[in-house]
Amino acid sequence: MAAPRIAHPGTDDYSMAELMAVEMSRNLAFDNGLTGGVGTSATIPMAAVRLATLTVAPDLTWFCGASAGINPTFSELPLSAHDPTAFVGAEAHVPMMRTVDLGMQGARWGFGFNGGIQVDRFGNCNMIGIGPYDSLRMRGPGTVGVIWAASMCHCYLYFNHHSTRTLVEKVDYISSPGYNYDGSGRWAGLKPTSTGPRLVYTPLCVMDFTEDTCELRLRSVHPGYTVEDVLENSGCSIVVPDEVPTTAPPTQLELMLLRTQIDRTGTLRDFQVTYG
Amino acid sequence: MTDQTFTLPQRRSKEISLEEAGALIAQRKRLAFGNEPMALVRAALRAGAEGLTVIPPVTTSLSTDLLIAAGAVESLYVCYIGFETLGMAPAFRRAAESRTIEVVEADEITVILGTRTAAGGMPFAPVANIYEATDLPRLNPDNLRRVVDPFTGTETYAIPALRSEICLIHAQEADIYGNAICLGSNNQEADKALASDFVIVQADRIVSTDRIREQPYRTSLPSNLVDAVVHAPFGNHPLVSGRHYQMDVPHVRTYLSMVKEGRAQEYLDTYVYGPKDEWAYLELIGMHDLLTLQRGV
């Protein structure tokens, strides 16, 4: 198996992790006024949500994972929300039990950023493992909070690695539910207000889901890569529209805010996202 | 009255040594972590703890992985175990893939609500419209069962109360009576303590009760929830202790690569069984590295 390659946008003006954070932040305009959250391994989403509150979504409220901070205003982006510095400048501290309350009742629970060791073309994610359950070839870290995809209004999926092993036709196990494999849309039995994944971010592209059958569809390809690169490195079919734009590079303002207000120590400039 | 002398009774200290704590843990099988108390984990291993069923906090890394690396875990409630962007939990992966530990396929609801249910003395908790489209009910049939809501007649899932025999918690500050301040986390500690038969707190600093009384709203665990207190300066090394010291990332990376290379025993011999006690462990890490971790917290 070839070693994963580092995704690079073809310029040294910004890193691919910075581009992902900026693109995520723009699409959070949709969530202005809602409450959302991030969880484990959420270095890029943490930066994105904070950037959105400075730009397109000033009325967004967010919950910063294990630090339990509401609306933190750190200027030195930590690698993990588990780092107590992710709590810096927060407005409130929310016990874990209150977070579970948000998920259990569903109301007041707008969006979250979820990931996994696999995602399939209907947006279902797997954190459990790969292979038959009594003889897993690869044991995953566990379902943790991605289960809340079943209760929050919608969720965003993100992956720091894009390959035929992470993007698959059908996940081995469903930790967080996306859409039904029969093309009928959201799975039955979930909170009625929960509409499913909206967008998928990877080191190569952004994807959304078709309106009728809720299948993965290419939305934009990051600078430095092509539609063919995306398809070659994916293990599932992806709907490709006639026109696929390039993901817009960060503007000077976005990059300035990111680097001076959120990530002064350059965590994302050095953060490697990979493919293949 | 003036010629009489009175002696007021003294409040009982709950402070014990780390070695005594290790022995208490080794006598029990069903262990819960309120967070990731590393000194108590090392003490438990030195005392020969084995055959444990572990209920970790919703995210756990080295505390649980080290117990697995030492072969001390029989069964594990898995919600999230890993080192986030530093990598997967290597001992857990190996043990789960080779089926040398039993995995209970859990998630945040099972751990938090199961613990809350036990903490409140309830038999089980109903969970509606969340597990339905996931594989968890199939993979965790002992803990996720269907019940009928007696008020509406609709079916929901139920999860059982999650009690433990012993619960281990790291605090930044505690007094000798068990009043404990846990900083930099999300308050799983109090429910974990309430849901356990015996609670041990390790504290970076032992402070006076006057200090606790200065800001009582900061007390995470009142003394009535705590059975024993251990003084463990830098007791969470190599993990983080909020406002006291950062994670020792190079040390954690060393652990990860040693276990991945099949050298878990060498790590354990060097850092757990080699030092005769926790003071010797801290001397092995060295004052330079320890005090440097206090920068910028």
From TrEMBL, chain A:
Gene3D superfamilies: Glutaconate Coenzyme A-transferase. InterPro entries: CoA_trans_fam_I (IPR004165), NagB/RpiA_transferase-like (IPR037171). SMART domains: CoA_trans (SM00882). PANTHER family: ACETATE COA-TRANSFERASE YDIF (PTHR43293), CHOLESTEROL RING-CLEAVING HYDROLASE IPDB SUBUNIT (PTHR43293:SF3). Belongs to the 3-oxoacid CoA-transferase subunit B family. This is CoA-transferase subunit beta. It comes from the Bacteria. It comes from Nocardioides fonticola.
UniProtKB/TrEMBL annotation, chain B:
InterPro entries: CoA_trans_fam_I, NagB/RpiA_transferase-like. This is CoA transferase subunit A. SMART domains: CoA_trans. Pfam families: CoA_trans. The keyword Nucleotidyltransferase does not apply. Keywords: Transferase. GO terms for molecular function: transferase activity. It comes from Nocardioides fonticola.
